[in-house]
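Consider a typical record:
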Amino acid sequence: MKKAVLFDMDGVLVDSEPVINAAAIAGLAEYGINAQPDDFLPFVGAGEDRYIGGVAEKYGHRYELAMKDRVYQIYLEMVDAHIKVFAGVHQLLAYLKAEGRLLALASSADRIKVDANLRAAGIDPQLFSTIISSEDVVHKKPAPDIYLAAAKALGQNTTSCIVIEDAINGIQAAHRAGMPCIAVATSFSRAELTAAGADRVIDSITQAAQALGELSL
């Protein structure tokens, strides 16, 4: 059994991808950028600097930190009304804790977004032995830094960790860190996640405990 389970946040624990998508479209519109929802797909899981900056650059605009600040401002105005925890998350976290596993939250998002999501979803931050956000690393997903930092903070070797993700960038980050990855098909299709190398693809976080057991992880 893997001692530590490292969770991505957006699209895994909380149904937040549609909210950040809407906030980013609204924020970039103020810069004259007519972004479309699918423009952001290549940057899902890579942190808001790339999520917003990649789309701005696609439309010929130089990325400015003020763009992210504005998107987060819009997002925080929406979060309490629109963020939902995925069914089964509370039960899964309690089950894994009861098994004696160490839990980490490892997100490419800024800490202000992580904290807002956890609050809105009613997830106790104390369930996680460590929380790693974008401010804690130089290189975001698909680089392995976030998951390596989480393992180090937990005092675990990478061979003792497994990752639960929803994004292609996150799967790549997990594998580059030397960790197996279960992917939840919330943001991408099963075929896309399988092609990205996920060790197991599940349709819902409610299937995570079963997948861990079947993989003997």
